[in-house]
Structure formats: structure tokens, C-alpha cells
Write a structure and sequence with these properties.
seven-stranded mixed β-sheet, globular, Aspartate Aminotransferase, domain 2
């Protein structure tokens, strides 16, 4: 049969993790921790299962969890949200992003995407019948070129997708960025799909700026969050979307026919954990900044160029002083020959701009990071 997504194959994350396993390499490619989640959270999940929280939850999420999430948004973002009409629990932020696009984008609509961009955005746009309009972030700084954005907007523009902190580059949107986005979104009546899954992972005292904190964006945005990133439980595949009541209602129409509900005992466990440890997410920036600094400091004597990541748990390394090979060639070569796996960032572009960066995940035990850095310093 003719494929609806002819250009889509196995994701780079799956391929590089499989290659790392095949070669016995240190896996700094796929973004997941190699350390355990908080013991209290794991115990809460076991308790939820044993206490019988194993049947369907309400389609929009357990009320107890949505209430805790409303408290979290007030605590960390200073934003008041109605847990009944504005918060939807979903089986992972990827599903939430898919549902927000499918609910909003019609045939012929244009959706602006900033490259390098996470690989789930474009397929969702195409399956909705929309057209992805791709705008490259500025080379090396990976800042948004707002002049290019403004020049691209037209009456067919329906939505803009933003991602901050940004995967794969670690860039973080500034206050000026958010005000410019707000002005353009109002002027062109744009919806905003905001991928904020790394919201708690910003460093060097940089704040995370959510679309929910800007009145002009609040009413027209889908904001997506991930428990997997916050609690080091990527395999639990649970997150949530916050949007104004009218937008939430449309998202839920799609969500109920894609997954219907997120996993009930996971929802109960997260609700119980947040009730007991509401300040836990605020600890993450310091925890991960120490790991970032350990990894970067260990590479100080290497031949890589680097700018410490501003957010996420990814660090880009510029290898332009080492090799002229493409990043995909080098990522595979170094996984096989050196035993360290990374992600080439060219795969996040439709037409790679010839940058020489590899992405490394530092959500790993200190000994793992030190061992990987020692190998990389030997290049």
C-alpha cells in the first residue's frame, strides 16, 4: 500500500540505542536516566497497584492528579488553572502534542516549526493534512530568527510549535522571545503548541518561561509537560497538557479516540508523590546542573568545542576541529570504534546545514559520564 508517511522510518533514537547495545557502548544517545526514580515514587506506584487503582481513569485524568498539577502550576509558574477544564492527563507528551495538532490543523493549514526540531512534530502535521513550514534556528546560538518567522507568516498560518528548553540543542527562550511570540501570535491569530517537557531543567539561574505565564499566549496555547522527564521514569509514558477550556475540549475529542486514558496506577502514584513532595521538581535544576558541569569539566582538555547547555539534559559537542565527517557517520563510527553513543543533530533538519555537532545525554551516573569523557578526551 502507499504509505501516508513515506519518508518516515525507525527513529534515530531507536537506531542508536540498538547500535550501542550491539557494540556494548556507553549509551549517551537516547534521553533517559540510568539511575532510579525516587524510592517514594516507586513505592507509591506499587501501593497504587496493590490498592486496586487498576481500572480506567476518567478520560481527562484522575481528579486527584489534576488537582495536584493545578497546585504545581501555581507553585512553580504562578499560574492559576482549572483542573477540571484546563488540565488533561495523557500517555506521554508526544500523544498530547499529536492530539493538539490533530485537533487544530486542517488541510492546507501551515504550521511553523523551528529546526532542528523533535521528530514527532512533522508526521503529526502531515497526518492532519497540514503543511510544515520549517525555519532554521540561528547557527551555533540556536536562537529563534523572529524576522524569518514574521516574514513567513500569512493568512494560511494556523499554528507555531515551540520547544523550550530545546531538544536537541539545550537552548532556552528568553523574555524577549516570549513577548515577540505573543505579539506575532495575536497579530496573526496563531495557535501555539508549546513543548515544555524539560521545564524544570534550566541552568545558571535561567528561569523557564511557559506560554501559560503570558496572557496573550495563555488563551491560544497548548502547553505540554512530561512526568517521565521530571521524575526519571521515561518508561511510564505519562504527561499532561494545559490549555484554555475551549482548546482542552477539542484536544480531548481527539485524545479519547487515540488512547482514551493514561495509565491509572501511574496517575495515582504521581498524585500521591506530589501531595507529599510538592517541592521535588524545584530540586532538579541543581541536580542536573552538577551533572552537566561534571561532564563539561571532564572534557576541558579535549579537542571539542562546547557551550554549556542552558537547559534539558543534553550537551552539544562541536567536533569541527576533529573531523570533517558528517555527524551521522561519526556517531556510528564512534559508537562502534570508541564505545560511546551519541545522536547526530542533522537528523532533526530536513536539509542539514553542515554543522558539526553531536548530542550527548548527561542524565547518567557520574561514573558513566567520567568514563565517557575520558574516552572522548582521547580523540
Amino acid at each position: 500500500m502507499d504509505s501516508k508517511l513515506p519518508g518516515i522510518g525507525t527513529t534515530i533514537f531507536t537506531r542508536m540505542s540498538a547500535l550501542a547495545a550491539e557494540c556494548g557502548a556507553i549509551n549517551l544517545s537516547q534521553g533517559y536516566p540510568d539511575f532510579e526514580a525516587p524510592e517514594e515514587l516507586r513505592e507509591a506506584l506499587a501501593r497504587a497497584v496493590m490498592d486496586g487503582h487498576n481500572q480506567y481513569a476518567p478520560m481527562s485524568g484522575l481528579p486527584a492528579l489534576r488537582e495536584q498539577l493545578a497546585l504545581q502550576l501555581q507553585l512553580h509558574r504562578g499560574v492559576a488553572c482549572d483542573p477540571e477544564t484546563e488540565i488533561t492527563v495523557v500517555p506521554g507528551a508526544t500523544e498530547g502534542i499529536f492530539c493538539s495538532i490533530m485537533a487544530s490543523v486542517r488541510a492546507g493549514d501551515e504550521v511553523l516549526v523551528m529546526d532542528p526540531s523533535y521528530d514527532s512534530y512533522i508526521p503529526a502535521i502531515e497526518m492532519a493534512g497540514g503543511k510544515a513550514v520549517r525555519i532554521a534556528l540561528r547557527a551555533h546560538s540556536f536562537a529563534v530568527d523572529w524576522d524569518a518567522v514574521a516574514a513567513t507568516l500569512n493568512p494560511r498560518s494556523r499554528m507555531i510549535i515551540i520547544n523550550s528548553p530545546h531538544n536537541p540543542t539545550g537552548a532556552v527562550l528568553s523574555e524577549d522571545d516570549m513577548h515577540t511570540l505573543e505579539r506575532l501570535a495575536i497579530e496573526y491569530d496563531l495557535l501555539v503548541c508549546s513543548d515544555e517537557v524539560y521545564e524544570h531543567l534550566t541552568y545558571d539561574d535561567l528561569p523557564h518561561r511557559s506560554v501559560l505565564q503570558y496572557p496573550g499566549l495563555r488563551e491560544r496555547s497548548f502547553a505540554h509537560f512530561s512526568f517521565g522527564k521530571t521524575f526519571s521514569v521515561t518508561g511510564w509514558k505519562t504527561g499532561y497538557c494545559v490549555a484554555a477550556p475551549a482548546l482542552s475540549a477539542e484536544l480531548r475529542k481527539v485524545h479519547q479516540f487515540v488512547a482514551f486514558v493514561a495509565v491509572t496506577p501511574v496517575q495515582q502514584a504521581v498524585a500521591d508523590f506530589l501531595a507529599d513532595y510538592p517541592e521535588y521538581p524545584a530540586r532538579l535544576a541543581g541536580f542536573y546542573q552538577r551533572k552537566r558541569d561534571l561532564f563539561c569539566d571532564a572534557l576541558a582538555g579535549s579537542n571539542f568545542r562546547l557551550r554549556p547547555s542552558a537547559g534539558t539534559y543534553f550537551q552539544l559537542l562541536d567536533y569541527s576541529d576533529i573531523s570533517t565527517a558528517t555527524d551521522q557517520q561519526l556517531a556510528e563510527q564512534w559508537t562502534r570504534e570508541l564505545g560511546v553513543a551519541s545522536i547526530p543533530i542533522s537528523v532533526f533538519y530536513p536539509s542539514p546545514p553542515g554543522l558539526h555537532y553531536l548530542r550527548f545525554c548527561f542524565a547518567k551516573n557520574d561514573a558513566t559520564l567520567e568514563q565517557a569523557a575520558e574516552i572522548l578526551c582521547g580523540i
